[in-house]
Amino acid sequence: MTIERIDVDVTSPGRNFVTAVVTTGDGVVGLGDGTLNGREFAVVSYLRDHVAPTLIGRDESQIESIWQYLYRSPYWRRGPVTMAAVAAIDMALWDIAAKKAGVPLYKLLGGASRTGLLSYAHASGTTIEKLNEAIHGYVEQGFRAVRIQSGVPGLDQIYGVHDSAPGGKYEYEPAGRTETGAAMRPAEETWDTAAYLRHLPSVFAAVREEFGGDLRILHDGHHRMSPIEAARLAKDIEPYAPFWLEDCTPGEDQTALRLVRHHSTTPLAIGEVFNSVHDYQTLITERLIDYVRSSATHAGGITGLRQIMTFAGIYGIRSGFHGPTDVSPVGMAANLHLGLALHNFGIQEYMPHSETTLSVFRTSYRFEDGLLHPGETPGLGVGLDREAASRYEYQPAYLPVNRLRDGSVHDW
After folding, report:
1. How far apart are CA 230 and CA 238, in angstroms?
2. Residues 323, 338: contact at Cβ < 8 Å?
3. Which GO terms describe its molecular function (predicted)?
């Protein structure tokens, strides 16, 4: 059959999501996630005005050909807006293909390579004591790996740091909502790299003392260090055997990771802001990283992300797909199906969506004993209640801006 209709839905059940709804001539519907945090309508316009009109009447089963058409045919390639739009269509077509085959998507991607996907939670606290409380809550839920983020003495609110609710439940949405009538500006936070570098090794030491060596602990640097600062941190935390140090320095200059690699054996992860295999070329061929952090939503869909992981697999590099709440449940399911099929899977980030979000996006993936599984529902296994979605109108929301103490804009 052929593509008969492409709708682009925008809904905000707790946060903003962009969903491509592709309908075939025989009535099969596929969903794709095109959410780009803080720039949602750029993707909406790209899909509605520039992509959808070119795909009506095309054979929806030609997934690879359509991906290449959307990627290679335009003069302007790559970039987060383009690749999020490509991702939305690509996921929807894979969803349709698996629904027509009557199987969960991972079976079209080569079948399961494992029984489940090792997942990590977000544990944070304004103090080390609060952080440890949060970690205990997640360990009790069955998590075997946690990302640890802590407040820094002398600094106020820091992105990614929040005291969790009892039981380790992570109720924190960092994308700030704009008040009615207020200026549409992101919140601004103050940062001090030197204070952070002095404090963080003590955080790792305290967590290891509390939880021993079996718990996998990860940390996100949020691109805030220079290469030499990142090298220092990687070396300082090396005795505590971190699972990885993520985004230790901005990723635009891939060669910067050479310096970090030279000074430490701490595993490195990067790439949640990357959107194509070309962003990884030096990092992969020189083995400067250990984990790929892209998501299907921001790297051209399942087809684009599989390209990256095939390339990475040649060099023994594993996946660590981005799984925050600004990837919709549709995008999360795409990550899970691909991760289950990949030989070089590493770990999956798991920041559960709110109950409000899950009242709009009905999921079949499950979490048990530290592992995620995409489920056995045909397709991606996610349904969109469009009537419920229509009740949650778009609300402007932005992640914070980061400034140093002197007021200068810093990397976020």
Report:
1. 12
2. no
3. magnesium ion binding; mannonate dehydratase activity
Average pLDDT over residues 295-322: 98
Identify the pLDDT of residue 172: 55
Give the start-to-end residue ranges of the domains of the chain. 3-104, 108-377
159 part of the active site: yes
Q: Nearest Cα to 206, choosing from 293, 120, 148, 291?
A: 148
3-state secondary structure of 390: coil
Q: Mapping DSSP to helix (H, G, I), strand (E, B) and coil, where does residue 36 land?
A: coil
Which tokens in the block code for residue 22? 């592709």
pLDDT averaged over every residue in the chain: 94
**100's tokens:** 């027509």
Pairing of strands 117-125, 371-373: antiparallel
315 is annotated as an active-site residue = no
CA distances from 222 to 63, 149, 163, 293 (A): 34, 11, 19, 12
Structure tokens at 83: 């690749």
Tokens found for residue 153: 């003495």
pLDDT at 328: 98
Q: What per-residue string of b and e applies to 323-353 under the rule 16 or more CB within 10 Å gives b?
A: bbbbbbbbbbbbbbbbbbbbebbbbbbbbbb
d(CA 174, CA 348): 20
Q: Is the pTM of this model over 0.90?
A: yes
Q: What is the mean pLDDT of residues 28-34?
A: 98
User: What does the block give as tokens for 271?
Assistant: 């790439």
CATH class of the domain at 108-377: alpha beta
DSSP 6: E
What is the pLDDT confidence band of residue 309, given thresholds at 50, 70 and 90? very high
249-273 tens-digit pLDDT: 998 899 999 999 999 999 999 999 9
pLDDT tens digit string along 338-389? 999 999 999 999 999 999 999 999 999 999 999 999 999 999 999 999 999 9
Domain 3-104 = CATH 3.40.50.300: no
Selecting among 122, 219, 222, 373, the annotated active-site residue is 222
**Given 46, 159, 291, 392, the catalytic residue:** 159
